[in-house]
Amino acid sequence: MHLTREPIDLAALLERARPSDGGVCLFVGVVRDHNEGRATRAIEYEAYGPMAEAEIERLLESLAGRWPEVWIEIRHRVGRLDIGEPSVAILATSPHRAEAFAACREAIDRLKTTVPIWKKEFYADGTSDWVDPTRRR
Amino acid sequence: MTVRLLYFASFREHAGRSEEARSLPDGATVSDLWRILGAEVPHFAAFGVVPPAAVNLEYAPPDRALREGDEVTFLPPVAGG
Fold first, then answer.
1. SS3 assignment, position B2
2. Using CA atoms, how far apart are residues A4 and B22, in angstroms rounded to an integer?
3. Which residues of B touch A116 (CB under 8 A)?
4. What ranges do the domains of chain A cover?
5. What is the ipTM of this complex?
6. pTM for the whole structure
7. B window 35-64, beta carbon within 8 A of A
8. What domain count does chain B have?
9. Range A3-126 has CATH code 3.90.1170.40
10. Is residue B64 part of a domain?
11. Yes or no, beta carbons of B8 and A87 under 8 Å apart
12. pLDDT score of A88
């Protein structure tokens, strides 16, 4: 399971590195206090759970085909998160760092465009709205 | 035929429901279904294009023919991370 309602355990994730790995790349996305000029207080993440799990599996298979030496783990929160909480974590561990960096970046970039997860921002002024990356306000 | 239709995020809020069983003419496609829904939900009619859709947990093109028992979802713009 890649989706979780519980806080992401980053220390446990780091322990997934193998003895043969010399480069461990951990990307953590956290909830920030603003977006597009507006102060935010929290974000609610919603997922189409079974499809999100399947899409992440397909993403992992694709990454494994491109970087066979890299081990990748993906965790994504669902539910309401406060400022500073990790919403997503991607671990890429590899014998050498170049592949770990590359695979980690590809993983987060593709996750954002293909995995059915949505977020609703709650603003300081009491309003809220769904984030639409295809629309520039 | 009858398909199971799921709604998420902004589409769920605009439709006012999270799922339903929907009867469709045999041979109906993903885009046919979107057109039918657009007649009921103004936000969908105003969406402009057929949004990405999933059939049975996989992305499916607009011309995909639906079958009895399919689980169908139209996906608002995804925003994970």
1. strand
2. 30
3. 8, 54, 73, 75, 78, 80
4. 3-126
5. 0.96
6. 0.96
7. 54, 57-59
8. 1
9. yes
10. yes
11. no
12. 98
Residues of B in contact with A115 (CB under 8 A): 78, 80
Domain around B70: 2-74
Using CA atoms, how far apart are residues A137 and B39, in angstroms rounded to an integer? 27
Quote the pLDDT of residue A136: 60
Query: What CATH number has the domain bearing residue B37?
Result: 3.10.20.30
- A79 φ/ψ sector (left φ>0, alpha ψ -120 to 50, else beta): left
**Among all chains, which residue has been given the structure tokens 């207080």?**
A41
Task: Write the single-letter amino acid at A109.
Answer: D
Please report whether residue B30 resides in a domain: yes
Is B80 part of a structural domain of the chain?
A: no
Give the minimum alpha-carbon distance from B71 to chain A in angstroms, rounded to a whole number: 11
Q: What is the pLDDT of residues A11-66, one digit of tens each?
A: 999 999 999 999 999 999 999 999 999 999 999 999 999 999 999 999 999 999 99
When pLDDT is averaged across residues B7-34 and rounded to a whole number, the result is: 98
Whether B79 is in a domain gets the answer: no
